[in-house]
Design a protein that fits this description.
By secondary structure, this protein is an all-alpha fold. It has helices at 2-8, 11-20, 41-52, 56-70, 72-96, 122-138, 146-166, 172-189, 193-198, 206-219, 230-253, 275-310, 318-321, 324-352; strands at residues 23-25, 36-38, 142-143, 268-269. The strands form 2 sheets. Strands 1-2 form a two-stranded antiparallel sheet. The chain has a two-stranded parallel ribbon with strand order 3-4. The model is unreliable at 29-33 (pLDDT under 50).
Length: 356
């Protein structure tokens, strides 16, 4: 078993996969970060696109789109599991401190997250969590071939997992570890999904817990030997989840939306996609994203100005933004506001504009 684990953690296995997919270092005798040669552009664009499905650009588009155009019930489930697996995965990285694949022999295509540790792959965790949570949550609400849904869930998570090998960001063991941890979390938490879905209407004090507990978890994030974007990314995810949850509570408390339903009385057929539905969905999405980006920019600028003034830091000081007492509060306030905006104010704007 120990020998198998060592082989799965071997960077040479990742390098062989890259070469089979047509990705080579620019110079065989030089550092792999200096450049690369692509000899198969099909795999290159396939896995680069797949890698984006596990990044912020996907979360900030897919999750709000699901809430505004498909089913808020599904978005609640997805956000809940997404935040859980991402926080556990990110914390595990900084506790285990397993390095990423070494270069050479691996070619590394992503520069921003090189400073992060590798085990487990949070891309693999998020992709597995989102695809299979969506599958499980739609089984008792919509009528569709289960085999088709399972195939799509497996294909989505597999593509993201393979993209982490292709981009040189993780070993095989990192990816498998992320998938297995997520599968275990889904199995353990599934019996409580319905209960958790109704907690936001349980008590007027619920918003205090939603804000205080996540903030404390982020502020007491495990310290790293050097700066990496892990803490900032974790705060972004947790704060967005807190904002979304608080938004659901606001909707229920002020009766802005109907109470969450555990399941529909009858399995519903998925309506056919028409041109009118597509145009309406795109309009709602563009309106919502526009408001979210506006709120994000305004709150971020305001929170940074307040924190810089409070701690007497020079404005636009990049290093100062990385300090714990500045990075966590401004990220938390910004993305909590984004979550509230996405679940409360965007639907209100849709109704005001007459967008059903």
């Amino acid at each position: 078993m120990a020998e198998l684990l060592r082989s799965l953690q071997d960077s040479r296995l990742v390098a062989r996969f890259q070469r089979r997919c047509g990705l080579f270092p620019a110079r065989e005798d030089g550092p792999r970060e200096s450049g690369y040669v692509v000899k198969n552009y099909f795999y290159y664009y396939l896995f680069r696109l797949s890698a984006a499905l596990g990044q912020e650009v996907f979360y900030i588009t897919f999750l709000p789109f699901t809430h505004w155009n498909i089913d808020p019930y599904l978005s609640r489930r997805l956000v809940m599991i997404w935040v859980l697996v991402m926080y556990i995965g990110q914390v595990a990285k900084d506790i285990l401190k397993w390095p990423r694949p070494s270069s050479p022999p691996v070619v590394k295509l992503e520069k921003r997250i090189i400073a992060e540790y590798g085990m487990p792959s949070t891309h693999a965790m998020a992709a597995t969590a989102i695809s299979f949570t969506l599958l499980i949550s739609t089984m008792d609400r919509y009528q569709y071939p289960f085999a088709l849904g399972l195939t799509m869930a497996v294909a989505f998570s597999t593509l993201v997992c393979l993209s982490r090998l292709y981009t040189g960001m993780h070993t095989v063991l990192d990816v498998l570890g992320g998938v297995l941890i997520t599968a275990l979390l889904i199995v353990l938490t599934y019996p409580a999904w319905t209960l958790l879905d109704f907690l936001d209407s349980a008590s007027p004090l619920f918003p205090v817990c939603v804000i205080v507990v996540p903030f404390v978890l982020c502020y007491n994030y495990p310290a790293s030997d050097y700066y990496s974007p892990t803490r900032a990314d974790t705060t972004t995810v947790v704060a967005a989840g807190a904002g979304v949850t608080l938004g659901f509570w606001i909707n229920h408390f002020f009766q802005l939306a109907s109470a969450p339903a555990a399941s529909l009385p009858v399995l519903q057929h998925i309506p056919p996609l028409t041109a009118d539905m597509l145009v309406l969905g795109l309009i709602k999405f563009m309106v919502g994203i526009g408001l979210i980006l506006l709120v994000r920019q305004l709150v971020q600028n305001l929170s940074l100005q307040v924190l810089f003034s409070w701690f007497k830091v020079v404005t636009r000081n990049k290093e100062a933004r990385r300090r714990l007492e500045i990075e966590v509060p401004y990220k938390f306030v910004t993305y909590t506001s984004v979550g509230i905006c996405a679940t409360t104010f965007v639907p209100m704007l849709h109704r005001f504009l007459g967008l059903p």
